[in-house]
Amino acid sequence: MLKGQFEAAEIVDNNERIAAALLEQGLITLDDFLPPALVAQLATEAIDLRRGEGLRPAGIGRGPSQHLNEGIRGDQIRWLEPDTATPAQRHYLEILEALRQAINRHLFLGLFGFEGHLALYPPGAYYRKHLDQFQGTQHRLVTVILYLNPDWRDEDGGQLRIYPDPTDEGCHQDLLPVAGRLVCFLSGDFPHEVLPARRERLSITGWFRQRD
Ligand code: OGA
Ligand code: MN
Question: I want to staple 74 with a disulfide (CB 3.0 to 4.6 A). Which of 108, 115, 125, 186 is the partner?
Fold first, then answer.
């Protein structure tokens, strides 16, 4: 009981920090965002899905123009759906719901929902530089990525490379996809890419959206 209350207090704190950072810098990295046992459970479930062939190659674009392009991205995904989510996934979705509300209180973005997927990059996979807003649309406003990989080291590659200044290609920040790390940024403001991973790389990537 006490532990549950403590965790809830921590989450509120984190959410306030994330919202304040989005307002000031548009970008934040936060380690140990979730309890390690929850991160480990989410990772185990992702691996089980891969073994059960429950993942599908990710597409590029949206709607009728969506297509597969392994030259751009090589990850395999499974969308999270509240109806079929596991208890661990539902727990994470509930935490994100509290984060969505905190961001709305601070930024008045009118975020109204979340869409997200598990992603698995097999060794050698990458995702070329892109923006998370599709051309001509602004439905995705805030990107939230949670990494699930224990003991990830520099030599494992798979860094998330973020370009904080779109006019300066040479300026970038590299983040390792270490278990429990959350990266959150304004989707339209930060081009980014995933460098080739040398190990299987797991994450849950998602977006807070505006109404269609
Ligand atoms: C994405 C993406 C980054 C990452 O799925 O759009 O950019 O670090 N993912 O997994
Ligand atoms: Mn992206």
Answer: 125
